[in-house]
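seq/struct pair 1
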Amino acid sequence: MAVPRIIPVLMHKNGRLVLSRRFEVHQDIGDPYHIIDRYKCWDLDELIYLDITPHWQSGCPEEIFERYVETIKKASRNCFIPLTAGGGICTVDQMHQLIKAGADRVMINTRALLEPGLITAAAHTFGAQAVIVGIDVRTNPAGGYDIYARGGKVKSNLKLVDWLHQAADLGAGEFFINHIDRDGMATGYDMELVKFVKSATDLPLIICGGAGKWDDMIPVLSHGIGAVAAANIFAYTELSYAEAKKGISQACKMRPATIGMDYAQSRRERERGSRLGAEKTVLWRELDKGGLME
């Protein structure tokens, strides 16, 4: 059995990183490169970077995608962790652009529902291991689950179990299951959904939506799920990934995050560089006062 993974998710909208709540409220949390550089120091199992900009509402979706490719290119520099890119992907050529820019895998969601053959084309081109099919769901009044497309705006007529089977047959390598109702709510993962998708497919699963504390991840991983993902929970706390790994590893065997010393050292080096810069500025001012700079 594969070692369980904990995967932070970054959401990119109109050139900024945001936190999401139920796919409706998006809070700006800043420049993507500063946060990505911080995550690079965390020895992540993997990083998922999703562009949630509503491409279909834009008059220039190509320009939006080009900016996203440039973001992935900059994000992947000196990045030695697996990187998955998704959002707004419509063609195999766009997947190729993202992989060329530095992504290891791609995630397709709405376009896969509209054009299922894209899954097969992607699997044939890059290998199934590089193709993740994202599925956004909501709980329906009957207690089942409905699939939604276009950022949770459009309900699909496909049944969840049927789409899991079809996408697997078409060549998907892994599923990313995101519960819209729990997105950003910090109420824990939907274990009924976890059990449902686990029983419906043999493909690896990434479960997302609802993490409020590290303990929320343990029941999911204990149920045999390959990976849990979360976004908001990692945004504000330094070394939060290492803390999550440390806490969860007591219940589930997983790869340790060898982060502490490396991150602390890099932080000390940055602080030392800032101090040296300040000291150098003071020295230049003193020399200038004494007329030694003339």
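seq/struct pair 2
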Amino acid sequence: MFGVEPICKVLTSHGLKIATSTYYAAKNRTPSARSIRDAELKTQISRVHADNFGVYGVRKVWRQLHREDIPVARCTVARLMRDLGLEGARRGKKIRTTIRDDGHDRPSDLLRRDFTASRPNERWVADFTYVATWSGIVYVAFVVDVFSRATVGWSAATSKRAKLVLDALDMALWRRDRDGIPAGPGLVHHSDAGSQYTSFAFTAHLLEAGIDASIGTVGDALDNALMESQIGLYKTELINPRRPWHGLADVELGTAEWVDWFNNQRVHTAIGDIPPHEHETNHYAQQQPQPAAGVNA
């Protein structure tokens, strides 16, 4: 081990004049208020990043800190995340999985790229993707509520037959019924022109539930852009960072965990930087009748 004095002498001989007293003065100096604050913020930033699948970038970490009443400037979050080596997930390319079937009549496009809704259960969008695993390909289907961006139904299977998307639809219907907000007449279910969504079994199921079917035009991803974006997030935030996947059970467990986080914790820009569940809760709270002025509760 070398002492401080020999090291300072070597540095001085190489043109870096540092006195021994300078080193001890720096070592014993009281930490600045900024350095103390930075250390505290780094702990909070690391926690928020880790708690959210390690996918939050500067903006979402900054938003989450403010949701937790931790005031900090966005530029400070950016600086400290650079110091910590933290960054948000980056999206890759979307690979098409659905194949159109010209043998089935298709419903018309009722959304026409208008991915807005005034309430839950007004418009759902659906699609599926695939995950490469050691045991083979696993297909994962989703149903998303346009109003809140909540994933209301999903399913996974080793086959992309119509049952895959039927199971996702059934989960969505079951969950809404369980939560006391059943879906039915007035709801539009929108998808691309894949054979699974134009099959007799699927369209009959929609009719039985009183749901209007909507199919985008062939070969245009923009006609189901919201669902394309949602699947992109799924791949970016869960599938790609956690590869390799072992098989169906592995993917199902990971997807269940991600959907729960996505619906209840992940903040979304399109709905005011709050989670989907909170957005729906706020909507229903506003629908409750307010007590008349001057009347005691």
